[in-house]
Write a structure and sequence with these properties.
Blueprint: E1 3-5, E2 14-16, E3 19-21, E4 24-26, E5 32-37, E6 40-49, H1 53-70, H2 75-91, H3 93-104, H4 108-128, E7 136-138, E8 144-152, E9 155-159, H5 167-178, E10 182-186, H6 192-205, E11 212-214, H7 223-232, E12 238-242, H8 245-257, E13 263-265, E14 270-274, H9 280-292, E15 302-308, H10 312-324, H11 344-360, E16 363-366, E17 393-396, H12 403-406, E18 413-419, H13 421-429, E19 434-435, E20 437-441, H14 445-454, E21 459-462, E22 478-479, H15 493-496, E23 497-505, H16 526-533
The structure holds 2-aminohexanedioic acid.
Length: 536
């Protein structure tokens, strides 16, 4: 179903990603935009359509029509589709992972992991379709029964980022479909090809025409914005967005006008704390991975390393040694620690961050730079002339109130912040407006307990990295990291369903709640009244 086009010079084929609206594929024509590999700007990975407002609205209408049938399909039947999706993802794992590596530059090992995250999600929700529990609740009145049911919300608009181009969409698409919603998905314009492959698997798994629709394009002034306009126009019942705090805030405003609660998974400036008693080897390994893994392009990547002054010299020395030996390069090279930037925008923001840090008074311990042709570091395996690569950056002498410690930056960069003891460490860890993930390295159970209780983050690791949340725990943040909604596991069900309360009265007469009570004043319960009046 997905077309490809041959490229010259032995490059792999270009994928032609269509919009799919009501089951009809619309290949890009004069409205095509290009996605090139960040590891090789000469490799045209995908051509996809820049969708018009009209197409986006049409997709919403198709989703609305399809909802009438899909919402009535029994949940275990919908779950069967999700089960087939799990198997298809498993069968296609290697092909998808290789494509993700090519399209967004993720090291192959990590790309495989990110497909696995979608498989885990599908497997979890396959069986959830046989639960989707409601409750039976005792009534205050006789011969009356109370029940609760989860009901679908309606048309869900999904807008996703390019750094986890299958895993994060699967966190939204799978539970939304399982619970009986229909959807319109606007994937990242950094990963239209991966989105097209995933969408094709949804179709093969048996998601009917119109139940899931895909419209490609950019965010501002493009498909993403049109989809939010559709909220204002009453065409969308729920938005789920993963991306920047600035965009999330705007989406929240629009949804608020319609009295809707969107799911917002936004930025982070995640703290990783190293206390004086920590296992330093372990902490260094975790910190290097949290900072530079995925080239720092996870919303869960660490932004600030908060280290007790007693161990700072030893930690700093080991961290610099490890970071300096990282291998950068071709995402398909199994030896690399990280690959390229996903796009030019992230690279430019990361370049600007150098000046932000220096102007604030931070000291550069590792002066990470874009890797230019002819200046490649040791062990580099990419093509510096064609890819968006950079060496790791490390700032020292950072205080939590500096801009560099406050602002999220997608890229290989981290700040060292020295503190004195647990109290100061927690204050620094809570010292940004964000609250997504967090980590502490310590052997002291009391310090673990206090950190867990006092950190204002949605996710906390004890002796592990800030990254790497598992697919069946609640994922999401506080403060500027989101609006409190959660993805994954049973918790995400609340994002895509509304509770319905039902009462069934079998008494054959009108029983008035709160009024027809079996209380002592009621003449209709003489037994109880006389029993109570008999008490001296
Ligand atoms: C993201 O960067 O948007 O916890 C998601 C993690 C991954 C997901 C990251 N499981 O790092």
């Amino acid at each position: 179903m997905i077309e490809t086009r041959a490229q010259q010079d032995g490059l792999p084929h270009t994928l032609i990603a269509p919009n799919v609206i009501d089951g009809q594929a619309h290949a890009p024509a004069s409205n095509a935009f290009e996605r090139k590999s960040p590891a090789n700007r000469g490799d045209l990975v995908c051509l996809a359509p820049s969708s018009s407002r009209e197409e986006v609205f049409r997709a919403c209408e198709a989703a609305k029509r399809a909802g009438a049938t899909w919402s009535r399909v029994p949940a275990p039947e919908r779950a069967r589709v999700i089960g087939r999706l799990a198997r298809l993802l498993t069968d296609e794992k290697e092909r998808l992972a290789r494509f993700i590596s090519r399209e967004v530059g993720k090291p192959l090992r990590e790309a495989r992991g990110s497909v696995q995250e979608a498989i885990d999600t599908a497997e979890f929700f396959q069986s959830e379709g046989r639960r989707l529990y409601g409750q039976t609740v005792p009534s205050e009145l006789p011969a009356k029964e109370l029940f609760t049911y989860r009901r679908p919300i309606g048309v869900v608009a999904l807008i996703t980022a390019g750094n986890f181009p299958i895993a994060v969409p699967s966190w939204k698409i799978i539970p939304a479909l399982l619970t009986g919603n229909t959807l319109v998905w606007k994937p990242s314009d950094d990963a239209p090809g991966t989105a097209a492959l995933f969408f094709e698997l949804l179709r093969r798994a048996g998601v009917p025409a119109g139940v899931a629709n895909i419209v490609h394009g950019g965010g501002a002034g493009a498909a993403g914005e049109f989809l939010i306009e559709a909220v204002d126009a009453g065409q969308v019942d729920k938005v789920s967005f993963t991306g920047s705090t600035a965009v999330g805030r705007r989406i929240g405003e629009v949804c608020g006008r319609r009295l809707q609660v969107p799911s917002l998974e936004l930025g982070g400036k995640n703290p990783l704390v190293v206390l004086a008693d920590a296992d330093l080897e372990l902490a260094v390994e975790g910190a290097v991975w949290a900072a530079y893994g995925t080239a720092g392009q996870r919303c869960t990547s660490a932004g600030n390393l908060i280290v007790d002054r007693r161990v700072m010299p030893a930690f700093r020395e080991r961290f610099v040694r490890r970071a300096s030996s990282l291998k950068i390069g071709n995402p398909l090279d199994p030896e690399i620690d990280y690959g390229p930037f996903i796009n030019e925008r992230f690279l430019e923001q990361w370049i600007e961050q150098r000046a932000t840090g220096l102007e604030g008074g931070a000291r550069l311990l590792l002066d990470g730079r874009r890797i230019a042709a002819g200046e490649e570091p040791a062990h580099f395996s990419g093509d510096a002339a064609l890819g968006l690569y950079a060496t790791p950056r490390l700032f020292d002498n950072v205080r939590i109130d500096m801009r560099v410690a406050q602002e999220e930056c997608f890229g290989p960069t981290i700040n060292l912040i020295e503190v004195d003891g647990l109290e100061e460490a927690i204050a620094a860890a809570n010292g940004t407006p964000y609250g997504l993930s967090s980590a502490v390295y310590t052997r002291d159970a009391h310090a673990m307990l206090r950190f867990k209780e006092e950190i204002r983050a949605g996710m906390t690791s004890i002796n592990n990295s800030t990254t790497g949340a598992e697919a069946h725990l609640p994922f999401g943040g506080n403060g500027w990291s989101g609006n409190g909604t959660r993805e994954s596991g049973i918790w995400v069900l609340d994002a895509y369903t509304r509770w319905q309360a039902v009462n069934v009265d079998l008494s054959g007469k009108l029983q008035k709640a709160q009024i027809d009570l079996a209380d002592p004043e009621s003449s209709e319960t003489p037994g109880l009244a006389s029993a109570l009046s008999a008490i001296p």
